[in-house]
Amino acid sequence: MVHTLKQEEVSQDRMSASLKAKKFVLWLFVVSSTIMFGGFTSYYIVFAASKGKGHGLVLPDVFMYSTAVLVLSSICLFFAARAVRRQNIQTQKIFLWLTMLLGIGFAYLQFDAWSALYQSGATLVNNNAAISVIYIVSGMHLLHILAGLCFILNSLWGAYSKVQPENAVYRIEIASIFWHFIDILWIYLYVFLLLNS
Amino acid sequence: MSTITLHDTHNNDHHDGHDHGHHEQSFITKYIFSQDHKMIAKQFLITGIVMAVIAMGLSILFRLQLAWPDKSFPILETFLGKWAEGGRIKPEFYLALVTIHGTIMVFFVLTAGLSGTFSNLLIPLQLGVRDMASPFMNMLSYWLFFIACVVMMSSFFIESGPASAGWTVYPPLSALPKAIPGSALGMTLWLVSMVLFVASQLMGGINYVSTVLNMRTKGMDLWKMPLTIWAFLLTAILGILSFPVLVAGVVLLIFDRSFGTSFYLSDIVMGTQVLPNEGGSPILWQHLFWFLGHPEVYIVIMPALGISSEVISVNSRKPIFGYHAMVYSLIGITILSFIVWGHHMFVTGMNPLLGGVFMITTLIIAVPSAVKTFNYLATLWRGNIRFTPAMLCAIGMVSFFISGGLTGIFLGNASLDINLHDTYFVVAHFHLVMGSAAIFGMLAGVYHWYPKMFGRMMNAKLGYLHFWVTFICAYLVFFPLHFLGLDGVPRRYYAFTEFEFMQKWVTVNIFVTWAAIVAALAQVAFLFNFFYSIFFGKKAVQNPWESNTLEWTTPVEHIHGNWPGEIPTVYRWPYDYSKPGAEHDFIPQTVPYSQTMSSNMPHDFEGNAESERIQREWVEKQAKEKTTQD
Predict the structure, then answer these.
(1) Which GO terms describe its cellular component (chain B) (predicted)?
(2) Distance from CA of A166 to the nearest CA of B (A)
(3) How many pairs of residues across A and B have Cβ atoms under 8 Å apart?
(4) Same domain, B511 and B590
(5) B219 and B333 inside one domain
(6) Among B508, B539, B570, which residue terminates a domain?
(7) CB spacing of B279 vs A51 below 8 angstroms
(8) What tens digit of pLDDT does each residue of B15-66 get?
């Protein structure tokens, strides 16, 4: 049996293989980023174990609100992704904008939390390095939020410039992988800081 | 029933302009901001060579100081100005020299120069891929590396000089800008350079892993990959898992230096001034640093091991001995390398029980390393050896790996290491096992794949000259250092004449320095050969070493997308050399078993009953023909 693969099929194949590989690239980035935060938190664990003390603070309530906002943004992004798959561009735009706004809101709340910490006397420059770690991990996490917002923007850009459906799915998929990752990452960091006071 | 699939390749050239059309490229997109993996490989290689020459020059400078601590070399003042006033290198600058020599050699030459060059060149070519998963990220990876190099070198042009706290930049020395001149701006530049470097390595490594796991050509399953690719894959995984930890450590160090936090600082008095920093611990930096630092030495050596496997097998005209064992030992090294970092810290007051654990894990690494060594020797054994320059370098690599590896067993023992820590014994150990061995692996790769990179051959005679002088001198340089170490001579000391027990070693230092100078001069042969051959070397044929792997099926002239038509399909493993019954002594991976009936072995078919039946019938038919002829 002989059949000829049409050119379109071949380039389609190659295209989706390349998208798959690019998505895998993002997963590997997620791994390496996790390891970096693992580095910070293991610094914390070893520090706390050798000094016999953690940060010893009651974390400001703002962190709780910011966590809620971030989780909400993740849910919005989930609905946006569903809208993309159903090719409902209007809903997609609304939910992407919501995700975006909630993300920015999260960033604002993190700054708020820092100022609450600062006013309570738990400053970045501190003779208890465990307190400084709070600033470092939330700061590094905020950098990830910034990158995540770029992914969301990229997806929004795709929605407005009416890219091909596969391309739109690809854009929202990488945005989702990254955004849900930083969501879970923040929950991990928050719980870690709560448990190891 | 079989299915034959014909790809409609005639239309390819204009249609798939999206990824690999053959459009004309401008000078800038072809040579500078290239996204083609072959060009990026060459960029990494040439930058790596330039950095290696610089780092070698630095080592000659401090070797001069070690050999003739009381002598004046007016020429040094001409070049170095205030850092060599009166023709003698200042102590501060001596420390900067060893620091930057180590940093450049470990990170810029043997990590980026080695992995960057050969992963980029060989992963797509040996796996049958048109380009990396993300060519753009690949380009970014090179340019971040380039900027990191520039930032690192720029520290030679600032008032306070380059970083001087050793390549491991231990705090508090590195964390206090006022501690030594080298801890001022030079240290900041070092840290910035390293952050850029790590970003570059992560982008590169992530790309390599994704390409290897997702984009192999038809028929190329993991167990048909050449050992080079296995080594690059595991090296990249190692990098992805360990470099981020260095970033974490560096971020904390930057905050300590520039913002006044106390992650690594406590109880410090400078002069009469008590510093406000309290509560940190410099040991924590060592943990974070060596969690990267130890895998790093395997990031350096594993590509060299992979390259040697390939070169030795090709030039012995024999299958590599123990292919699976080679892969499993690489995997073993990869996993073990994450649980041995404590052996760098036996003298930090570590709990002896914990020290014992690290000692055992360290010594276990000797097992996969020995498996690899014996496999190399078994591959060479009774092979039909072709002593090309690449082969000599690969054998040299094995030699250094053995002689340097043996002292690793000494140092892995806590009870010995506590005495030998920070002596020249350690210097001798790692310069042999990871310095010389990795450099020789890299040279083997350059000599072997030069025809693939530049379409021309390097001069073999100059190659032999370069190899023998470098090989002998490397031993003459590093072997005597063991004895200094056993006598307790500490590393990084500026003048051997200042200490009575070290004075007797000055003569040895003079010998070592002369050997180093001769070795450096031998590199001129290499450099001339390398750059001359790019333009005037003998034109290479398509498969100059009669090798099996896919890269030799591409045309000599480079094209974007590697193969002009369809990507070849792979049918067999890459090590079918001197197979009994075969027409030639090598069978490329693209030759199906149906074309090599006379040399097929029962295990070639991996239990496929249909293929076994066809082979059996063919053998019976041959036998019948033979009897009728008789």
Answers:
(1) membrane
(2) 15
(3) 141
(4) no
(5) yes
(6) B539
(7) yes
(8) 333 444 445 677 787 788 888 999 999 999 999 999 999 999 999 999 999 9
Contact indicator for B163, B183 with CB cutoff of 8 Å: yes
Q: Is B588 helix (H, G, I), strand (E, B) or coil?
A: coil
| C-alpha distance from B315 to closest chain A C-alpha (Å) | 34
Q: How many residues does this entry show for chain A?
A: 197
Q: Is residue B3 part of a domain?
A: no
- Nearest 5°: the CA angle B243, B138, B301 is 45
- Report yes or no on whether pTM surpasses 0.80: yes
* DSSP states along B83-114: GGGGGS--HHHHHHHHHHHHHIIIIIIIIIII
Of the CATH numbers 1.20.1630.10, 3.40.50.300, 1.20.120.80, 3.90.226.10, which one belongs to the domain with range A22-195?
1.20.120.80
Query: Which is nearest to A165 in space by CA: A59, A91, A63, A88?
Result: A88
pLDDT, tens digit, 9 for 90 and up, residues B133-183: 889 999 999 999 999 999 999 999 999 999 999 999 999 999 999 889 999
Number of other residues whose CB lies within 10 A of the CB of residue A168: 20
| Cβ neighbours for B547, distance < 8 A, ≥ 6 positions apart | B314, B586, B588
Question: Could you tell me where the DSSP H helices lie in B69-184?
Answer: 74-80, 91-103, 117-127, 135-154
> Token digits for B70?
């009381």
Q: What is the Cα Rg of chain B in Å?
A: 26
